[in-house]
Amino acid sequence: MDNNEKLEKEIIGTEDVPTEKEEAEILAEGVAAEEEALLEEQAEPCIRCGEKESLEGSEFCEDCLNGMLNTKIPLIAWMAAAASVIVGIVAAATVFFLAAPTFLGMSAETAARDNRWSDAYYYYNQMDTTVSDFQSLIDWKEGKSEPVLRRLFSMGTEAKARKIEAYAKAYNPMEAISKLVIDGYTSYDAVVENEGKLLENKRVEPYWELFSGILYTEELMNYSEEYPEEENYENLLEFYNLIEKQKGADPVYVAYMKYALADIYDRTDDEKIACLQTCDKLSIESGRDYKWLYYYEYADLLAKTGRTDEAIALLDMLASENKNNFDAYLAKNRILLAAGRTDDAEKLIEDLKESYGNYGELYEMEVTLLRYKGDYQRAKELAETAVSENDIFPEVRRQLALIYLAEGNYKNAFAQVETAYANAYNYYAQFGADAPSEELAKTYYVCAKLYESTGAYTQEEANSIGMAYEMFGEDFEPQGDMKAIISGEKTVKEILTEGDCDLI
Amino acid sequence: MRIIYVIGKYITFPGAFLRGFWEHLTCLLLGLPVEHSGYLRADEMCGHIEHILPKKATAAFVSATAPGIMGVLTGLPTVVMGLANIRVMGVTFADSPVLFVLYILMIYVGASVMCCLHPQFEVAQNLWDITLDKLRSGNGRSVAGGVFMLIPALWTYIGAVLERFSVPVILWAAGTAAIFLI
Questions:
Q1: Is there a domain that residue B107 lies in?
Q2: Is B77 close to A154, i.e. CB distance below 8 A?
Q3: How far is B164 from chain A (nearest CA, A)?
Q4: CA nearest neighbour of B72 among B150, B168, B148, B5
Q5: Domain assignment present for A494
Q6: Domain residues for B13?
Q7: What pTM, to 2 d.p., does this model score?
Q8: Cα separations in angstroms, B95 against A2, A154, A156, A193, B100
Q9: ipTM
């Protein structure tokens, strides 16, 4: 042992270091021990049956493993899965075809939630059309049982009821029932028999009751033996008072008829307002909504008597209940302009533009505003843009006719109003809107008279002028502003720049 | 928690049963030993079958996701058809009692299937672990596989955790109620 080996022993304190041969022996013993341990492990019993030895690398014996790999799926599970797959395929195909009406229905509901009832009705109508188009592809003769496929693609009572509700809230409950429920039936009993489910629906029932009540009241008025022999305001008013007391008569409708009577017999505005105030009071008491019946006339009367703010409040209420009630916006615009509140009218138009963009009736409002402000050039340009984009709104053309009238261009004015009149009839036929308005009729007449006075018209135009007069009848006598223009008491420019600035 | 899970599965028993079937079929196709094949049991295996956890990524991925995919393919159109007809197309009992009941059943069965889309927690955990191993492996192909599996694995894992507390049942019940109430 040399000095180094001695030093190593002193520091490490070990005995003899094993030789290479000894190291190999130790390693071999270790491997053998590990193999033995592994064998002992493999020999462990199957954890499932606990009897047979488990297979190498597995916790299960051969029998258990085979059993686990070949477990049987119960027949009922196969049947249930097959049924679910078949139903899934049929459902997927149905959903594919139902997607369009479903999205339209969802859009309608969103619009209804947002109080945009005109939009809601539009979407429900589209939904109905889509479903009907699809159904028309499936052969079916009435009287025979309806094919399953047709029934799978049909609009149910609830959706039909929502459509009626949307129409009633957007336009008019009476029309909703007459147009969407009873149209095509020849008798009241037939309606009740065939549309019973729909009429009992909680959405439709109030409108049906309203409709029936008003219809009954009209029958009482038309067929009563108490009807006065001599028709005058006092006698008819007394007759209406009698009708009001009859069982089943609609008191709000009778009150409205009293207003109509006052209007026909040219009673004072205060008397008319009193009638409509009674309407309002009775309407609130009844708990039903009759705003569609008298609010526009009420607002016009209030505006006419200088109570502009009250009139605007009524129209705002109508607009809040149906956010796309453009009839209310148009009336508000007209009342604001007549009151000289052009800034308010401008703000109204800007607010609406933000929500709807440039829309047909908005063009109409803006053109009217510009004309009121005397900006004929811009009004004309805007009206021409509106007409070139969509020529279904007769009022835009009437405004254009008024501009030409103010400029003294009677030829163009007559041409515009003639087209407006024709469009109004087409619009009525297509969308069921009101027939040509009173102001359109008046404008038509004035344009015809003024153009005729120039003598510079063709034979074809002469026929058109003749047709315009025919519509008013031989006995027609122009009144108010019409008379003033035709007789030369006032110029067109005076009429169109003062007061209402229109032929209303 | 086990009682909540079992109640949830029993409420949605059509979905739980079908889920068990699809799991069973997937295991047989993948050659995974099935220890217990009862689909509706009163324990945490309700709506599932007991099988050996696969060690291979493909088998782990397929066994964890395929039954759920089958559930979506069959359950979703079923529930949508029922909801669309009753809620939007407005079909009522008065219109056609047979169709109305059929649509109600479709909503129930479809929603049940949609409540039972996820595997048992251990299967989801196994897939998640395998996905993480692949992502950490450093091998290009493995990492790519891990990336592909990541979102489904995470979705499966979260879904399995939520199903332990019957959260999908509560969400579907609340959602369906909301659809009818709004």
A1: no
A2: no
A3: 24
A4: B168
A5: yes
A6: 2-70+114-181
A7: 0.80
A8: 112, 10, 7, 14, 8
A9: 0.92
